[in-house]
């Protein structure tokens, strides 16, 4: 197990380094003239030059990279082009909301997915069609249609159930219920399918048939024998879905006006505030890598065979 | 499957007729008509009369804009899917056929791409490089190439051990010849089926980027972002682009699923 943990941690660090190198490239090599974004369209040539010097854009690239990497290690992600605030602080203020949104959406997706998967055992064709339809629909459209349905059903009173704003400042359920539901609904689809397929396979296996012949109730077979086997693919899928969850969180925050890190990113995109967007990319990559690592360790604990983790699974 | 095809073909025809809709209604897509399109209280006029599917919050024609948006969304979707298919097949074939270091790179690369929050990467590219189609298409394609590469690689690992491939090798065919002449044709079915399933994902990705304001042009996503502001007084601003987007993604998904089921 120790060897596995070391290999897994090394891979995580390698991925994070690659992402940070990509972020540096976008910010310092590709980004065309950030001083024009900061100075605005009517800034004079002297102002532009002063901003360039202030950002250190005229120094050699390796010096810029040294400063960037040193800053990263100290948790400094640079400053917003728009407000001049440190990006790390802006993200740190908003991240708890996003983590709450993703965590709740994830839990709801698993619950809904397993329930629908077990429920779908008797109607596999119908279950497949529903899963397919939901999985193909963009997250923001699901959110918008939920909003529209609420408005159509309850009128303006329905919209009072959705309140934009930070969830910590009161109205917690009103602010989180629909965002959670949207994220949970969309992501439940893949878990439902996975649960159903794994269950169908396991319930025909020898040890389950033996248990059935001893007179164990079908309900107990599903919950006790079937779902225990399904836990491993479900956990693996959760790790894969982390990227989709974070992407979904950005969209859902915009649809429902939840003031999390995703909303911050979307607003930064609108004004071309590159450091904030790239800071969010780094934070998102850290979250995704951390979640994938936790999931891999959890799977290794659940299923000893997977501890022989190698760079190229066949 | 037939109904899915009918829906897709009608959407393509609807998009192809975009200039005709503009001529027949007399409303160019970007032009706002505050005098006819907005009621005295400033809300958009409902469907019927001059505006067949209503006007949006600025007094633009929803029908004409939806048709031009269908062009953007479908063209971007097709282009991104084609590029993703090419990249995915190339990477999967190289990884599965060559093995060793190439395979390790492909396997790890697809894993990282699948777990990475795609939308954040796309937003970063859009904010640094601008949101033109030349940025959006490759970014979406790279993200979608991962599942394709993974599926192709798995299939190649199976096919390359089959007897007819071994026979070709025994007859002295070069590795390149075996790869392109024997293994590649055996991938056609699964690749086409998966590409049809990637198409709704590409359309969804493009409209999501447009909804967040990171992709330029008239798109269903951008119309939905406008519609979210106006739907309380004008349901058509949300339901027309939303319905078209839903129809496109569902039809592609059903078609792709039906194709997958027919594979041996």
From TrEMBL, chain A:
InterPro entries: BPD_transp_1_N (IPR045621), MetI-like (IPR000515), MetI-like_sf (IPR035906). SUPFAM superfamilies: MetI-like. Keywords: Cell membrane, Membrane, Transmembrane, Transmembrane helix, Transport. Its main location: membrane. It is a multi-pass membrane protein. It is found in: Cell membrane. The keyword Transmembrane helix applies. The chain crosses the membrane at residues 95-118, 130-157, 177-194. The keyword Cytoplasm does not apply. Belongs to the binding-protein-dependent transport system permease family. PANTHER family: DIPEPTIDE TRANSPORT SYSTEM PERMEASE PROTEIN DPPB-RELATED, PEPTIDE ABC TRANSPORTER PERMEASE PROTEIN. This is ABC transporter permease. It comes from Actinocorallia longicatena.
Automatic annotation (TrEMBL), chain B:
It is a multi-pass membrane protein. Residues 70-256 form the ABC transmembrane type-1 domain. It comes from the Bacteria. It is found in: Cell membrane. The keyword Transmembrane helix applies. The chain crosses the membrane at residues 78-100, 112-129, 187-214, 234-256. Keywords: Cell membrane, Membrane, Transmembrane, Transmembrane helix, Transport. The keyword Phosphoprotein does not apply. It holds the Pfam family BPD_transp_1. SUPFAM superfamilies: MetI-like. InterPro entries: BP-dependent_transpt_permease, MetI-like, MetI-like_sf. Belongs to the binding-protein-dependent transport system permease family. PANTHER family: D,D-DIPEPTIDE TRANSPORT SYSTEM PERMEASE PROTEIN DDPC-RELATED, OLIGOPEPTIDE TRANSPORT SYSTEM PERMEASE PROTEIN APPC. This is ABC transporter permease. It comes from Actinocorallia longicatena.
